[in-house]
Amino acid sequence: MAAARVVSIPLRTRFRGMTERELLVFEGPNGWSEWAAFPEYGDEEASLWLEAALEWGYGSLPATKRSQVKVNAILPAIKVEEIAKLLSKAGKFETVKIKVSESGQNLTDDISRIQEVKTLYPEAKIRLDANGGFDIPLALELIEKLSALGIKLEYFEQPVKTIAELAELRLEISKRGLETLIAADESARKSSDPLAVEIAGAADILVLKSAPLGGIARALEVAASSKLPIVASSAMQSSIGLGAELHFAASLDELVFDAGLGTLNLFAGDLVRNQLRPENGVLEVRREELNTSALEIFNAEDHRYDWWIARLERCGRLIGLEG
Ligand SMILES: [Mg+2]
Fold it and tell me: Which residues have a Cβ under 8 Å from the Cβ of 251 and sit 6 or more positions away?
């Protein structure tokens, strides 16, 4: 992979503890591609992301089935008084995903944030994402409190960490006569078998991203072999990598839920001129060319470049890549 570059793009707000997003980008015959495995990931997991990046740069890609994809807006766990401003940047949307269970915050913070969104956008569908941050009692408490407030969720994504906990939480929800749907994200992509969630009765919905699953073709196979509805989503990629997730979303047979591709408003910069930002909640399916001056603007420090290249060599060996 000649001429790989490493960039570090600043984020508008802290997200998953990050203030910058580091990515390795390279050009293949299909166009520019991006390896976006988060730095804390081990080589095995990062290798799947590398396979996905190679597919987007070099591989044959499935045909898309639509030219537009509806997407949700995303709200990080920010202060209530900052919500209106951040969401106004997302433009029009029908669905908003609210991050909950941020460390250093409590249920009251989550509920205030959700209520503020409900006040600002009474018609919007609300989905929550805890990234596995709650235990079962806390997740139930949040669901019950929201239900008491008359706030209905579209679904609750990864409220608890493990597949066993998800399954138990679903039982508790139905025992209590609640109707909250549970979506699996981390449990569906970190497990060696993405469909283990379904077999365990641990979710009503599967959140799928092509990068962590090793590419678009593999993600489509998972979607095809699952009976659960799919939410196509992204993993904090720039417009280069987001293009692959958009291609995946556009290649699915059916899109029941708005896709989780509205993540670019969390970025303070990008690698293309015409960003893959939704307009009125809709993304046009397309692949954008890299803006080469972005490589200079966001060029990562030398020691980070060295770190990524060493990681590339290790992960390349794991997937049988030569040189
Ligand atoms: Mg998630």
Answer: 62, 63, 64, 65, 216, 220
Ligand 1 centre to CA of 323 (Å) is 35
Q: Is residue 323 part of a domain?
A: no
Structural domain boundaries, residue 216: 68-290
Q: What CATH number is associated with residue 302?
A: 3.30.390.10
Task: Give domain status of residue 72, yes or no.
Answer: yes
CATH number, domain with residue 279: 3.20.20.120
Whole-number Å distance, alpha carbon 321 to ligand 1 midpoint, is 30
Residues 164 and 23 reside in one and the same domain: no
Ligand 1 centroid, distance to 38 Cα (angstroms): 14
What distance in angstroms lies between residue 292's CA and the mean position of ligand 1's atoms? 31
Same domain, residue pair 125 and 205: yes
Q: In sequence order, what E strands does 1-154 have?
A: 5-15, 18-28, 31-35, 68-70, 73-75, 95-99, 125-129
Q: pTM of the prediction?
A: 0.94
pLDDT tens digits, one per residue of 11-45: 988 877 789 999 999 999 999 999 999 999 999 99
Annotated active-site positions, please? 99, 209
